[in-house]
Model the fold of this input.
Amino acid sequence: MSWAGKILRVNLTAGTVTPEPLNMEWAKAYLGSRGLASKYLISEIDPKVDPLSPDNKIIWATGPLTGTMASTGGRYTVVTKGPLTGAIACSNSGGYWGAELKMAGWDMIIFEGKSPKPVYLYVNDDVAELRDASHLWGQSVWKTEEMLKTSLQDPLLRISSIGKAGENGVLYAAVVNDLHRAAGRSGVGTVMGSKNLKAIAVRGTKGVGNVRDPKAFMAATKAAKKVLADNAVTGQGLPTYGTQVLMNVINEVGLLPTRNHRDVQFEGAKDISAEAMVTPRATDGKKHLVTNQACFGCTIACGRISKIDETHFSVQNKPQYWGASGGLEYEAAWALGAANGVNDLEALQYANLICNEQGMDPISFGATVGAVMELYEMGVLTKEQIGIEAPFGSAKALCELADMTANGVGFGKEIGLGSKRLTAKYGHPDLSMSVKGQEFPAYDGRVAQGIGLAYATSNRGACHLRGYTIASEVLGIPVKTEPTASEGKPELVKAFQDATAAFDSAGICIFTSFAWTLADVAPQIQAACGEEFTMEHLNLIGERIWNMEREFNNAAGFTSKDDSLPKRLLTEPAKTGPGKGSVSKLPEMLPKYYEVRGWDAEGRPTAATKERLGL
Done:
């Protein structure tokens, strides 16, 4: 079976590192990565624990397909109780780190307690030890990676670390690996910083050699790769344009939240789109996009590598940002751009570089800036309070606020709290475009009814990656549904949520689901792990994981009242576009969703549902 069968338990308080056998009964019930790590976390912590106390735990986990030749098999997740939301936090990353951990012979690392001083964990196959990180504290993600590779004399090390945002307690700090891949959301990097844990440096030379049926596995992965190659989205759209292919598409259908969700279309969308990224600039004649890039084992290669205009005001005197580095994904381009009314592509890239360099979620950062700009325009916040003029559309304000927030200076400390706490502090909590304290991604829930319901019910707070109904509502995958229609959306959302949990837990990228269904995943897991992993069984595992996460949140104090959306989406109709006049129909969809899920009227899984799922 393609699990390594071993986990590392690191007690930061005591400074001990202890290997343990993987609980195989749990592995079969929860698969790996998101599902399995959540099972461990929920079994070991009090749901009411303070996320930033030593009693919280944080887990890095791979899936059974991580490190194998399955396409996109490079994913890992970081699971903890999140400081931004107080809910379960599970954040997923690509790049090469996850595969490296698996090839070192480990499925998972569990960190508990708090180190009295900054440390990093060094893993080289069977060798695993905590080492002093005092010299790394205060360094950026980029500098930390460079210093560790140099001091350990190993350029092939893979590093997962935090920057200043995680050290300074920005509540949406990210864990970054391979310079610009991130477990980005819910503040997993903040928990890492609270434990004085700076980095995990891994070198694995063992490979993943325990696949159950290698011949069948090769055949299954080959067939699945052909499905990805033949699909218009995974074979053409994403490799050519990356996720940014969506900017103009989503804007045209009137789903692009603009200026803190006051509008649903952005007049400047074309200036910050994928097409703009490949158009030579007027200033220097060069294209913003340098090349695309793939994560470990990926045959899609949606990643972007971009080069900023050296004459742009943001980097004129900062040559350290002139090189080619991680470029804009759609969500980041939206949050840093349309959410604030900023259509300066180079300014967006600068803010994106700062988020990568110091380990900060660009979605929560950008969306919080959108709230700040609205408060500024209302006169609630002043230039004196913020330190700068901050109207909607100000590229200069965006860049300065990125620096301030990442470095924890001035008003940046307030922005680091996230929009829920910030807007409440200044008397306008309704201006936080968030669910359970986590900011919305780049789709308007008034017009696409399914994604609005998915946001409201997501276990980790507002999230598109926990049930991407946009695939159906906009792209027609696997079937086309009318965005503004509410009928059938509870069933659609549940189906997407359960399937996504299975994809995440397998250790593969959710973008494969543009082309694959669980029918494409099942043969790969069966050949890797065992015959019992049929499509139906994987779907059941996904449903089990979803309900387990829900049970944790309920025990942490969340209720059906938290399955809500901001007043703006429920009462202020979309002003333009095909969905003009629409508001979210959440009140009529939510009871039906609970019913479809097998939950009671208060959103609690019934005894019968728990029994059926083995919870």
User: Anything to note?
Assistant: The first strand starts at residue 6 and ends at 11. Residues 472 and 479 are 6 Å apart (CA to CA). The radius of gyration is 22 Å. The mean pLDDT is 97.
